[in-house]
Amino acid sequence: xxxxxxxxxxxxxxxxxxxxxxxxxxxxxxxxxxxxxxxxxxxxxxxxxxxxxxxxxxxxxxxxxxxxxxxxxxxxxxxxxxxxxxxxxxxxxxxxxxxxxxxxxxxxxxxxxxxxxxxxxxxxxxxxxxxxxxxxxxxxxxxxxxxxxxxxxxxxxxxxxxxxxxxxxxxxxxxxxxxxxxxxxxxxxxxxxxxxxxxxxxxxxxxxxxxxxxxxxxxxxxxxxxxxxxxxxxxxxxxxxxxxxxxxxxxxxxxxxxxxxxxxxxxxxxxxxxxxxxxxxxxxxxxxxxxxxxxxxxxxxxxxxxxxxxxxxxxxxxxxxxxxxxxxxxxxxxxx
Length: 336
Hints:
With 336 residues, this protein is an alpha/beta fold. 40% of the residues lie in helices and 16% in strands. The strands form four sheets. The protein has a seven-stranded parallel sheet, sandwiched between helices. The protein has a two-stranded parallel ribbon with strand order 7-10. Strands 8-13 form a two-stranded parallel ribbon. Helix 7 crosses helix 9 (269-280). The longest helix has 22 residues, at 96-117. The protein is globular. It starts with a strand and ends with a helix. The model has no long low-confidence stretch (mean pLDDT 95).
């Protein structure tokens, strides 16, 4: 298949594109290579992908209302994996308009491109942040997500609603994946594991919010990519059991589906930091700080639906995942 992967210079997009290329698909990558974090890391990811003969890259902004339709019309994609977005809970409080441009306008452009060129299936990234202040664990896609705590989460919830309208009006099969704390080699420098490793190696303290009482469903990147590809290969069908009088948020009378994609384990943040200390051989100096605005104390994914429908079964324990990240980090950046 010829597949468009947006955000292909990003963490998850890079790994997803590589997996698709390894199995023989043709991948067109799209990214604007913005400076939200180090563009050199993004370019290094693209350099690895360029070694595959089936890969081509387009530098373009998702909000380009002329360029995106032209790209869809020219390339004739079979399927689309839409992972490009402005990420980050905290940054959405500083620059919300960046999230409007990328996550709202950009996703609308992708939906329009899919609609007008007969794309068979759109898989797009949502987030566990949509669960907001929900305290019912594990988080289930059958629960309401109407109370997000950050503008980032609100834009991702909006993406789910936008996708549903296109599935309903134009019968475009769409699948939304709510990612839970993805980590691993080639990760994002604004994520906790990356920041912790960088500071610890430099002899600097790390900021640990909620006084270290966080719990997260840390999910290794290889498991995430397996879930993405499994979902991509299974376009959703209308749910014949859908009851409009008691609607299930995860499905529809349209070809629309929402899945959680996580590790189905909630791990203490202090355990995560302890593993990093073991792998680096460094004791962390910690600044214990209160819970931040927009943040949640705990996440835990119910992945039963994705497992049932695609066979998804994460296999990487956090002990293995952290060690693999550290090995990559030291190889890429070196030890001070």
